[in-house]
Predict the 3D structure of the following.
Amino acid sequence: MVTSTKSKEGQDDLNKRLRSLKIDRGPAPSPAAGNRTPKLLMLGIAVLLALVALGYVFLFAGAKTISVAAVRVESGGASAGESVLSASGYVVAHHKIAVGAKVMGRVAWIGVEKGDNVQEGQVLVRLEDSEFRAQVNQAQANLAAAQARLDRLRTGSRPEEKLKDKAAVLQAEANLKNAEAEFQRTESLYRSGVSSKAEYDRALANRDSAAALLQAARQSSAMTDIGPRKEEIRAAEAEVQQMRAALDYANTQLAATEIKAPVTGTVLQRIVERGEMVSPSAFGGSGARTSVVDLADLTDLQVELDISQTDFARLKSEQRAEIIPEAYPNLRFTGFIEEIAPEANRAKSTVQVKVKVENPNEQLRPEMNARVNFLADKPSATENKTIARVLVPKTAIVTKDNSSFVFVVKGNKVEQRTIRTGEESGDAYVVLDGLSGNESVAVAGVDKLRDGDRVKVQ
């Protein structure tokens, strides 16, 4: 009985506690003003912190970290000896010669290799010459025959020939005298009726033939005394000149079988081998070489460059320059602008310029890459010496698709801006267009930036 009573009291106590935990949905009691203020203040602080956190996430979540540097302005233009433009080009021989053959023939001997130094007139290649020697011998024989005939005409008849012709005249006179006497006897007998008409006609013909032979003998003797005609001598002289010219041509062809160096220089390339056919370029056929070696004077070198039309105004003829070969970056050669192309290249928007190397040596060779720094002249007294230059750090420049640009920092974003650069100045480039000098540019992480990216400065 006692236990039952205690259990009932415990259950009542539990029910009271559960009723105290129910939510009171009745009207809230009106708190005092002093208790309401701290709660509102805490709520406002919580809302403000939430907004700050949201702004931080919006502004800096995903922002790229960069370093920046200021674009600086320097006063004073390039002084004498400073570079006003830098460009890259190729070393070339001023005069490169492809030594060829004057006659067609087969190579019999080669006396040079690539890289050999040769002197002007040195024999480089010999061709087979048996046919050309035969032509020379034939021309010599023809000249000798023509000269002998001319000498005979100029000397005239010998005394023995003159005596022979005079004796022929005397013999013809005697024959005529005998024929005349025989004719007279035959005529007398014919008129007397002793001789026949045939005997008379024969005697008459013999007399007339003897008279003609006497006339021919006299003319021949006269021609022997006078000598050859001037026209015959001139014709013989012309024939001698023709034969002499033919001999000179044959000798020239024979001499052309020895191919010689036209200038002192270096063999750049040996093109032919023994047994190959060579021919003049005008008559070159299939399989025949037209050149035997490539030759150049390596003491007369130039650097060939294509200068952009936008930079061309900074150059002029005979402007001094410094040449730095890519293979030997510690070497310096002096030079000046020797040639400027008379017309520009429309396709590339460039003008070709050639810089003469004044002090070349064996380390500077054709077809090498070289950088040329064009130097400023000494300024005159009337020139402005306080020209401002805008300089941008090299690390800020990005080059892509033949254009250069930088990322200018504006607030928490970057703006991509295309620029045009000039010569180097220490660790910076001179800016010709695109920057005014009061900007800040990104110098680290620029390869990963894009126009309009959000950034945060490191």
